[in-house]
Write a structure and sequence with these properties.
Blueprint (H helix, E strand, L loop, with lengths): L2 E6 L5 H13 L3 E6 L6 E3 L5 E3 L2 E2 L8 E6 L3 H8 L2 H12 L3 E5 L2 H6 L9 E2 L6 H6 L3 E2 L4 E4 L2 E4 L5 H12 L2 H10 L7
Parallel strand pairs: 1-2, 1-6, 2-5, 6-7, 7-11, 8-9
Antiparallel strand pairs: 3-4, 10-11
Length: 189
């Protein structure tokens, strides 16, 4: 089974990161947390919650990856965007037809400047749409947008739906429904 990497940089949005990790693991997917902080696996989130990653960026093999997933948080996404290693991994994964998911500020701050939204439908945190449009995105004002192998979400409240969309794409809709119903989150897919 391929791995799914969740990238954590200082200032990441904890609710989004933990929700994505939790739901994908409930679905039986292999999820690994990747520290984008040089020299440590312990990454502080936007609200002071420290999460210990399982690997550093240097240990990531994108060829083993199904999904590269980016939680939001303005500082977290700014730090992800500043990482040449993260940018290179994302560009190479996209060029190989790999799956990418980004929520909250990540579509605008990380993906758009790399040209990864060009010609794609996307959503992002309100107020950052112009950055996505500058990157060539066609903005859609809904919580979660799936455009082939790209899934974007607009913020923390969309984290369950975002993770479910990744599960539906990676496995199938029935597994996504089963996981979300187990959380008492009922949505018709």
């Amino acid at each position: 089974m391929k791995r799914n990497y969740v990238f954590l940089a200082k200032g990441f949005e904890e609710l989004e990161a933990v929700t994505i990790i939790d739901l994908l693991r409930r679905a039986g997917l292999c999820v690994e947390l990747i520290s984008a902080v040089e020299g440590t696996l312990e990454v502080p989130g936007a609200h002071g919650i420290v999460v210990k990653a399982e690997k550093s960026l240097d240990e990531v093999d994108a060829a083993e990856a199904d999904w590269l997933l980016l939680p939001g948080g303005f500082d977290g996404t700014t730090n992800l965007a500043a990482s040449e290693k993260v940018s290179t991994l994302l560009k190479n994964h996209a060029a190989a037809g790999g799956n990418i998911g980004a929520i909250c500020a990540a579509p605008a701050i990380v993906l758009a400047p790399l040209g990864l939204l060009k010609g794609r439908e996307a959503t992002c945190y309100p107020g950052l749409e112009d950055k996505c449009v500058e990157g060539g995105a066609k903005m859609v004002n809904i919580p979660v947008v799936t455009d082939r192998n790209l899934i974007t979400g607009n913020g923390p409240a969309a984290a369950i739906e975002f993770a479910a969309a990744v599960i539906a794409h990676a496995l199938n809709v029935n597994v996504a429904r089963e996981v979300t119903e187990g959380l008492l989150y009922n949505r018709d897919y």
